[in-house]
Design brief:
By secondary structure, the chain is of the alpha/beta class. It is built from 29 helices and 24 strands. The chain is globular, with a radius of gyration of 32 Å. The two termini are about 55 Å apart.
Amino acid sequence: MSRRPLVAIACGWMAGSGLAAGYAGWRFWLFWLGLSLVCPAIILIRRQSWRSLILVWLAFSLGGGYWLYNEAGNHSRIGLPADGQAVRLEGTIVSAVKVDGDRADFTLKANRISLNPAGGRAPAMQEIPGGEKVAVQLRLASPSEQRAAATWRRGLRVTLRGTLESPQPARNFGAFDYRRYLHLQRIHWLVKVPGASSLQMGQSTRGAAAAMGYIDALRDRLGERIERLFPGWQAGYMKGLLIGLQDELDPDKYLEFTQLGLTHILAISGSHVAINVALVLGLLRICRVTRETAITVAFFFVPGYMLLTGFSPSVIRSGLMTMLGLYLLRRGLLKDSLNVLAAAAMLMLIWDPYYLLNVSFQLSFAVTAGLIVFVPLLAPYLRGLPGKTGSAAAITLAAQLVSFPLTAVYFNQFSLLSIPANLLLVPVIGMLALPLGTGALVISLLSVRVGSWLALPVRWLNMATFEATSWLSARSGFMTYWKSPSLLWVAAFYVGCYLLLYWGKRRERLAAEAMAGAGAWKDDDTVPLGPLKDAGFFSKRERRPRSAGIRGLKSYRALAADLGRGAWARRGDLLRLTVAAGLVWLLISGYQPVYSKGTGYIEFIDVGQGDCALITTPSGKHLLVDGGGTVSFRKAKDAWRERREPFEVGAKTVVPLLKKRGIHRLDAVILTHGDQDHVGGLQAVLDSFPVEALLINGSLAESKTMKKLMETALTRRIPVYPASRGMELRPDGATRLEVLYPLTETEKLGRIPFVKEQNHRSIVFRLDLAGASFLFTGDMDEEAEREMLGLEKTAASVTPGRRKASIDVMKVAHHGSKTSTSAAWLAYWQPAAALISVGVSNTYGHPHPTVVDRLNGQNVRIYRTDKQGEVQMRVRGGRIEVRSKLSGTP
């Protein structure tokens, strides 16, 4: 605190802001009061100075108050129109326009609005005090509109007509919250525009938005030049590496980088800024420019580079640190990089306190602070490595150590190959591909031919890089999945790692001092008191050695050994062992799934218009029933509408949720039938998780999705079992799964047939879990219901003591379609509750009012994913506890 007051102030400010972000209103002030009362106790116990503690407490209070002040003003100025309200807006485009397939997205700062303009004469436009940012999603109707949208820039005045909608909150527990994401950007409304014809372009404005528009145009021109230097997928990769344009990188190659923890290479950050500043300083040195002038030129180069590369939080952090460092270097005041980092953090948080919750901000500052703090602690352990390998290894290990908890929080995965991949590839990319690529791009502005020659070795490097990433990412068994840990877990991990390394370094230092002191005594009778006093070698009453004399000692090695095994060393070893054990316990607890042993869980995941349910047995077995899927009716002539990375519910919803809940493998995947809205998301599941068994309905759908799914199962050697009536699964003693339909055993047919209409053949099974019963029905139709009811009634008449047909929960068939869930079916099973998995405002009219009326007529409690989002049921001792993500009425 005495040496780095700015660091302590920044930490206090961030702690106050973070507490205010997590606990709004009176709860924050209650915590604030409690912490304020604790401060005097800390002063008395730790004997801290009043000045130091008051400074931190003041920063904490100001940080929390500043957050609450900004939250109080972060609300819509448009008013409270209903969702779907038709509006007419006038304003200025203030973000880069992203055109992807048949959609253009941008942010509009609206200055005037007119409500209800449809039908008749539109009301007069009204001013919006101070203006308000809205997110615009414009549906493009033709390739010509797509080309026109690509020319739009920031700073343009536009008038548009569309519908005003409230952003959707997270519909599954732990899922991405789009409403919260936009709120942190001070955006409260979406405007959906039906086509470019509903938008009228005006003149370009003056000011910051227009200036950024020119920057966007410059980035696009540089992107076009990069495309001329680097062919195919390399163009998208080099755009991300050189100017921060990541949208065009091949999705498969980006996935490989993600799996190996290499995406930070593509995010413009400290290394990119440092390398480019070094290039500028090197060129100026060659030109014999004075040191002071070179530093000044580099200082003014940095903000231009920040603007050119996108002005993301990581760019702002590294740019501010570089500018502060260059300024202090010229003034001869650069002494501590942690203070520079703290100053950059304070400037950014005062400018926008919402940076605190930005993933890029957190990773950038955490990794930078970790490198400053942990590299000196790790370096002694790697001293034996040749050359500069030890320093590179220390940097890589420190970065991985610090980024691991945040990676677990936000991405829920960590590859054990991440450390060797970073150690191998980051120096190659950072020290060769980045500067050579930058040089080729700059030279190409003068001569494309010369630039292409210079880009040639970079192409070879890129080929080698992606050969290495492909080989590494193909190694199975190295990816680990982690549930999202708590803030306390993250803090404990950082503190434990620091203490473990700090005490280890201190022990080495004492031993080294002891050996150095012993060497001095060998040649001189003068006794260095420092090391001996620290080790307790002198008694309190005497100022001479307890032994007869230095010359009476056996050797300096014996003395060093005595000191190394002294009381402090033994105590330090015990503390290190305790901390190491605590870190191991943290890792084990963080790796465990979120589910409690002895309790059963059924989670009906909201996948829109589709089905997906996760069953977790009391012993911890995981069974996934269907995986949702995105249905597309797009024709070949509409290929231009395809997006670079289209939304796929398995990759975007199901897999992230399974990772977030700490699931490492699936004991079975039950594919009730082959329709796209049930199997489409399973491809991502099979690609991401080890699966022990795949259960199908004894037939295959004639679709590319089903074909690829079966090929994946064969490639990964996943056993595929056709289900039929009478089959039972017993994952543990408290769980029994009995297949009730389909009736035909595939083995008797001798082959697995292709069947177009899959609904009738849906797998239907009864699940008895921890004393409660559930019925899963897929998309079965009334004909299948009649067939099954006949067999059930026959079995009940000839089998004495057969268990009761009534069940606790029924998953309603076919999303509540009128072709299923007949009155006879409900009368036979008599469910106490029903779950309907259905998409919001779906075009099929699901659930049908007739089915809802039948359920209400039998007093069945209805849960619906379109109204309540994900529905989770926890079962213990026959009791079912239900919670839903949204507060919709059942």
